[in-house]
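Recap from last week: sequence in, structure out.
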Amino acid sequence: MTQRYARITGWGKYVPARRLTNYDLEQIVDTTDEWITSHTGIRERRIAEPNETTVDMALHASRIALERAQVQPEELDLIIFATSSPDYFVPAAASLLQNRLGAAGVPAFDLSAGCTGSIYALVTATQFVQTGAYRRVLVVGAEKISAGIDYTDRNTAIMFGDGAGALMLEASNSPTGLLSFELGSDGALWDALYCPGGGSANPFSEKVLANREQYLRMDGKRVFKFTAKTVTRSIQNVVESSGLPFSEIDYMVPHQSNVRIIELLTSRLKFDPDKVMVNLDRYGNTSAAAIPMALADAADQGKIAEGDHIVLAGFGAGMTWGTAVIHWEPTKPSEEQAILVENWPIREALQLQANKVRAAVWSAQVTARTKAQEASMSVMVPFYTWQRKRKKAKAQQDEENTDQQQG
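Predicted structure tokens:
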């Protein structure tokens, strides 16, 4: 039986026209452009108009991806739509997209895994292709996350933006696509990033509206701690299981949430920052849309090339994570080329003992750096917390002394 692979043949991105800059947010919440930029790396984000929906944005991105892959909507076999902000609770956003694309009768479903949704969707789509169930699958990540943001809450108001990304996967006899992946979830941290009202546990009511519980809430410190602990190890796992030495990883597309997290990952992995896609400065955190949007930008800007090996790393509400290594070769080879692809890594050769040793050494080095950084943080964070409290207490004392002198 011929081995089947899922080739990424098309990609597309869409963002709304309206920009919400840090200077705009200075007029809304207690923050500054300097603080937002230094703590997150975000300078602006795109916000959908009131009448612009998640499916509207997904439609634009999907049409671009289909056109690039030269696939007609009616040729699709499946649509997987990753989102946490569908147009309606019922029906699925995927069904609305399927209808508006003109993909009559094509099965379609939504997938919800927070910001990690697009990785879950990519892995799921690949399984359908590899098993022979379907030949052409459209993967979409789109969010109108602004509809669930409380713009009086600095924790979330500064972070999120709207947008959509799409990837077209097609069956191939020539090896390409997903090399390895890891999906995970730690439900014990469910309330680190969640929307407390509106679901079956706490349905919409006057109380929900009065307490603004219909909006997203985030504990940034817990999210950062989870990410720092989990994502580096996950990247180590998928690179090792891909059969590739880390030196053959050409590019990395991490979730676009916070530049400090991205810098931490590249530092621990000793990866060239110039080979890491970052577009969060322009779009903020677009949740499930972030990775397909960033991948599309990397491709359109010529930052990735045919034959490259790319790490995708996502993390988000749940708390979930998803990491993958992909082989990027969107050009469909001829039948003759499909028999032998010279730049494809031969798995048997990559599993030689020499490569296993290299992978083990690299992984041990990353683990050592991670432990050293975590130990340093465990010492410095309490110190900085004490220092902040001390400065605050001194400022309050100075203010009281001033009031007494004026009195």
